[in-house]
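re: ur question from earlier - yeah i can do the single chain one, its not a big deal. heres the input i used so u can compare w yours
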Amino acid sequence: MSDRASTIARMGALFRRDLRLELSYHFQFAMRVFQMFMFTTSLFFVSKLIKNPPELEPYGGRYFEFVVIGMIVASFVSLGIGSFTTSISDEQRAGTLEVVLGSPTGLATFLAGSFLKPLLFTVVQMALYLTTAIVIFRAHIPLSGLPLAVPLLALMVLTFCALGVLSASFIVLTKRGDPISLIAIQAGTLFAGVLFPTSVLPGPLEAVTRFVPAYYGLEGLRAVLLTRAGLGDVLGDLFWLACFVVVLVPMAVWTFSQAIRAARVTGTLGNY
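and the output i got, formated as tokens:
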């Protein structure tokens, strides 16, 4: 078997293990779907209180569609940041992290394989979320923008995966919470414009939004999904997201490998 085929097989094994474990909790998944539906319903009725504010004109003018896209992005932000810390914590708690990393499974293969199940479930949940908004609540979200939405989402997820790997580095060393996850998620919610346009922020705070990756992802997604923008309209967003990826991904992988090395030296890699 070639190295590439072997890597894919190992990633598949990690995915199947995580998927079997997740599917064994049927009630938990059903509750997630129910929670998603109830939250979408709440957003719909909240949107009834917000009547055509001028700040929403660049996004089509309707708050429900605006916030639906925002919550989808927030879910992918949480996915990227939280999935790796959860995987590392679970492996440490089970006492299997050192065994997995000591096997032929490489570090990158382990991280990628551990990410596949949460990614699948998030995509499924967000598809249900979007379907609920469009079919039940008649949200005006043209699906013709989906081809351009995919690269925007992919680059944004990669960016927040890098932050998630940085967070996991702290978990490996401290076995406790890290200072990155909470800050990144809260900053993504506030400064990216998940719940409101960033134009309502005071000048200095609005300037901060340009340093938040999710801001560019949200601006691009809302442009292609709500205003039928084309590739030329979102090239800037794609460019800045790609810059974040180029900087953060190598930094995250290097930091995590150093954390693993330090934990092995101190003999704490398998401890929790």
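The chain has one domain: 3-266. not sure if urs matches, ping me
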